[in-house]
Design goal:
Rossmann fold, 2 domains, four-stranded parallel beta sheet, HAD family hydrolase, 10 helices, about 220 residues
Length: about 220
């Protein structure tokens, strides 16, 4: 039985990663002693924005962080809609009494900006944010399982990275890997996680079968 389906945000609900990378790069360039590579930026993902900035800026990180927030707000017009089918998928889960939390590495400020831009700021049953000190999705998932009295086999997490899949595997919950974003690498995800989906529609079909198993069959008359 499935009782809870958690969602990641960037790269899962919307194609925001290119915008996030541009906002971050433009914000920290004046405060670093070299031009950051895409690999260096990606290595900071999973921390919230303060943690990301502190990882690459040694001095004046507060100024760099303020600049990042400004860039993030201004650039978000690049990403104002969720992926096609996401609204319908969340609605389908809620109609079937599935608890739908958001579990993101983002900080509260940028998460609020994104959800407002997407029109999803009143959508999720719970929202858990990232930490500036460490990647905390595992702890946040376990917290939700305890809070709602959900067993591990009753929980799915939808995320777009190998780290999401690895985190879920390490604590014994199922990750449904989202491989539909512009920067996704479906083959890499599939090599690690058999539950990898290249479209929201494909994931919806999978969850439709899982949800149907929740419903008791009517006994014959």
């Amino acid at each position: 039985m499935i009782k809870m389906v958690g969602f990641d945000l960037d790269g899962t609900i919307c194609d925001s990663l290119p915008m996030c990378m541009e906002a971050f790069m433009n914000a920290v360039i004046p405060y670093t002693d070299h031009e950051l590579s895409e690999k260096e930026i990606v290595s900071t993902f999973g921390l919230n924005e303060a943690g990301m900035v502190k990882a690459v800026v040694k001095n004046d990180w507060e100024a760099a962080l303020d600049r990042f927030y400004e860039n993030y707000q201004n650039l978000h017009d690049m990403c104002i809609t969720p992926f096609e089918g996401i609204r319908e998928l969340i609605g389908f889960l809620k109609q079937n009494q599935i608890i739908v939390p958001l579990i993101t590495g983002k900080g509260e400020k940028t998460c609020e900006i994104t959800l407002t831009k997407l029109g999803l700021n009143h959508t999720f049953d719970d929202i858990l944010y990232g930490s500036e000190k460490y990647r905390c999705k595992k702890e946040n998932i376990l917290y939700l399982l305890e809070k709602y009295a959900i067993e591990k086999e009753e929980f799915f997490y939808i995320g777009d990275t190998l780290q999401d899949a690895a985190d879920c595997h390490s604590i014994g919950v199922t990750c449904l890997s989202a491989a539909w974003a512009e920067l996704a690498n479906p083959n890499l995800l599939k090599d690690y996680n058999p539950y990898t989906f290249e479209s929201v529609a494909g994931l919806k079909k999978f969850l439709d079968i899982a949800v149907k198993q929740n419903k008791p069959h009517n006994p014959p008359l």
